[in-house]
Amino acid sequence: MIYPKNSLEKLGFEEIKNNIKKYCISEMGIEMVDKIRFMNNAEQIIKFLNQTHEFKTILQSDEALPISSFYDIKKLSDKAKIEGTFLTEEELFQIYNSLQTAFAVISYFEEREGQYPNLEALFEHLPIEKSILREIERVIDAKGKIKNNASRLLADIIDAISKAEQDARKKIDQIYKNAQNNNWVADGSLTVRDGRICIPILAENKRKLKGFVHDESASGQTVYIEPEEVFNLNNLVRDLEFEKRREIIRILTELTDKLRPFVPILYSYHNFLTKLDYVRAKALFAIELDAEMPVITNDIGLKLLNARHPLLMLSGKQTGKTVVPLNMHLDPKTRILLVSGPNAGGKSVAMKTVGLLQIMVQSGLLIPASEESEFCILKQVFADIGDDQSIESDLSTYSAHLSKMKYFTENANGKTLILIDEFGTGTDPQFGGPIAEAVLEIINKKKALGVITTHYSNLKVFANHTEGLENASMIFDNVNLQPLYMLEMGKPGSSYAFEIAQKIGLSQHLIDLAKSKIDVQQRKVDTLLVDLERDKKELYDQKRYIDRERRKIDELLLENQKLKNYYEENRKQLLKEAKLEAQQIIKGANKLVENTIAEIKTNKADKDKTQTLRANLNTELKKHDIKPEPPKKSDKSNVEEIVKGSWVRLKDSGNIAQILDISKDNLIIAFGELRSVVKKNRVEVVTSKEVPKEIKRASGASHTQSAVDFVSEIDVRGMRGEEALAKIESLLDRAVMFSMGSFKIIHGKGDGILRKLIRTYLKKYSEVDRLEDEHADRGGDGITYVYLK
């Protein structure tokens, strides 16, 4: 219940409804917005809030609902249910389009079953009767016109009309041409008079043409004659048109009769589409306000977090002004908030914001406040806002206020929200203050919730020591003498009357004179409030600074935590990448060392060239932060580490060979041009000095010459299998020894036997990475590419 009735208008609720109407796409939706009312059924309120919230979610983050337009099919259904009536082509087309929209929307939600349960409830148990569409489609085309073949008779009539019109046109063209040849025709061409095609004839020649005169020119020199022969044909067309109209009415009547049993279902579709338009409009308005769905609680009280007045937000968007958010709460311990402070400081706006948002929530509307805000469901909202003096009732402003106070004190209870603006004004403060205090005491005893604005000091003192009441003030910058429009609970505020008077330019003498006339105690109270306000302002500034610093610290901590989490999540990957990078560097360094050794051997250990190569090697290694180690001197036992390039002696035969590559416990060794694979435990390292010079020369020359002469292609076509494999094995050994990446085997296609034999053989070697066919244009599977690891 809202008391008095004009409170909704004074709080701005009617303007809220007008803004919602702008988003409706149907007259039915607008009518439903007009019916928005203050409810106190918690279940219904929550359902309406959830519907709006779900529709808002669809508009912001889902595919668009297939809603374009729909019509008032209730009115059309009312017409259709009367026996003997028929719906016009346009009316049937409106029903058709509306049902198309309804079915498309239902299909949309069925595809998202369970995602929007409160909106799905709008069409729960609603049958999908597509036979209505089929009946209309049989008669009405896609443009909303009756089909020529809606019946056999209609098709025949239309054909007859077309033929008669053609005959009439041919006849009148023939007569017109003949009249032109005889110079009977006045200036101009064929024209239409009274729906008939006529020939403009000079008045002196009108007797020469048989027909009916339909009109004459203003001067009387031209008459418009319909030839007699054409007249009969046009009459035939007219008669056929009448027949066509009768047949169309018969078809439409028949179709309406078929739709009449579906009228109750059409009513249901109408209600569904109307509610859909209504909820959509509320959701669009919520998006404009950045509105959220608050928490509905069973506990008596309310909590507003970052709440803004909706109408101020709308005007602020147009003017570019920011609305200062409101934070406050009411609960069983703090039921009534007594707000004081300077004029134009925002007291009334804060009070109206609380009242308007409470009414919006209990009307099923989302509000511009944090979703953590809390509202209880109240039974009554009482408001005393503005001047309600009545000449008719012979009530003064103060009498009007008192009549409301009487109603408030008699009817308030624990589920009532009371809003009073400028409590106690309108009469002598000496008497108005005590009356206001008495009213406040009764309202408090009735456990009502309330937000009351006042300037009366006695009310501030009363609220300070009375349980259930709480002082609050609008923060004022007493340095710059301007309001900050922020509500602070816990302390009363000064009116800053003298400070504001001084700012607007009243003389100091006048201000001092005024100060001398006020009560000493009152002056002390007001001075104390000003000092408190100053202290609050300093504390507020410090709090803002601390909050900013805390936010910076929180951001740094959050960033640090994110980096820590990223490291923890990606530690294995980072280590893996680091290992791979290290392997690549080592592989490159090894290759560089091998190439350097090869060049030294090629240059036969020339001293200057060797120094140059070593310098280049050191430079390249430093690029990768690898420090070249000085050559290790052999110890007394002359034992050296087994590495690529080392010389070893086979324990069982005593032969000396050089290590070409190492694979786990296996060594690939070379005796001149011969290579073999032996286990590590079958050899012992020998120093370079122990190797005979002729073996070194043979090995160096062989390796150098082999690297120079290495050919990465072999042709084994026509060879026997064993011979081909021997050749390929030799080429593979040389490719591995000189770190060649790949080589090519030409074996031909044939029956594929040789190709299969070669590939099976090569797959046994761990040094082989993969085998691939040559490009189809260059030999295809007659050539195999061998890629080494």
TrEMBL record:
InterPro entries: DNA_mismatch_repair_MutS_C (IPR000432), DNA_mismatch_repair_MutS_core (IPR007696), DNA_mismatch_repair_MutS_sf (IPR036187), MutS (IPR045076), MutS2 (IPR005747), P-loop_NTPase (IPR027417), Smr_dom (IPR002625), Smr_dom_sf (IPR036063). Its EC number is 3.1.-.-, 3.6.4.-. Pfam families: MutS_V, Smr. The keyword Nucleotide-binding applies. GO terms for molecular function: endonuclease activity. It comes from the Bacteria. It is an enzyme of class 3 (hydrolase). Residues 546-583 form a coiled coil. The keyword ATP-binding applies. Keywords: ATP-binding, Coiled coil, DNA-binding, Endonuclease, Hydrolase, Nuclease, Nucleotide-binding, RNA-binding, rRNA-binding. ATP binds at residues 341-348. Residues 714-789 form the Smr domain. Signal peptide: none annotated. Homodimer. Binds to stalled ribosomes, contacting rRNA. Endonuclease that is involved in the suppression of homologous recombination and thus may have a key role in the control of bacterial genetic diversity. Belongs to the DNA mismatch repair MutS family. MutS2 subfamily. This is Endonuclease MutS2. The gene is mutS2.
